[in-house]
Amino acid sequence: MNTLASAGARPQIEAISLPGAAAAAAIATVLLLAALHALSPEFDPSWRMVSEYANGRYGWVLSLMFGMWALSTWALAFELWPRVRGRAGKIGLYFLIASGIGEMMAAFFDINHPLHDVAGLIGVPTMPIAASLISWRWPCSSRKKALRSLLWTANLIWLALALFIATMYLMVTTLHHAGGHMGRALNHLPAGTIALDGWANRLYVVACCIWVIAAAYQDNSTSETACRGNANVSTASPD
Prior knowledge:
The protein is mostly helical and about 240 residues long.
């Protein structure tokens, strides 16, 4: 009897643990990013990239942040894999796994390593695509409130990425007009340079974590039985 009870409880425990782990790792990512802001004030957050914290005294905190970010992404992907339906949803999960690969690569290869740029190319553009596809193919799409919150947070990632691209272009353009030049030797910005790209870079990290937390919460609060029940009610209701 006890064995049967334990066997019956196991899926429930696993269902709670993976979304919880994803949310906890995402929260840890944001907290570690905030800690780096306090620990390394020499890096101006208005124009210094998050990855530049590797050149400070607390590079290990940055590596831990990227590692937590990857773990949150993979935990969510592993939890949703058997539940997300449709080709678009599965493609979204592949992109989510790829984003985690880029994040974990960044944990091991800092900004001074050639593979760091590869990590960015793998991890950054795949995350908003994954969030959008998975949100559209959410396992319990009959829950309109949950779907709206997921799509809103997915769009926040796109907005953060667009802001980053726009502010980076703005900084490079104004820097050039001010007589400065981009490069690793750039330690300060000349007067007239408009720098907001560092904040946009941090917003992107936070936006990604917000979506993971929202997805983990919705997954943890919705069971397959509830989804089937809502679907059956919708099917049985007359037009």
